[in-house]
Amino acid sequence: MTTKERYARILAWFRQNRPVAETELHYHNPFELLVAVMLSAQCTDKRVNLITPRLFQDYPSAEVMAASTPEVIFEYIRSISYPNNKAKHLVATARMLTDEFGGQVPDTLEELLRLPGVGRKTANVMLSVVFGEAAMAVDTHVFRVSHRLGLVSDQCTTPLSVEKALMKHIPRRDVATAHHWLILHGRYTCTARNPQCQTCGLAPFCLYNNEIARKGIQIK
Question: Structure pTM?
Answer without folding.
Answer: 0.90
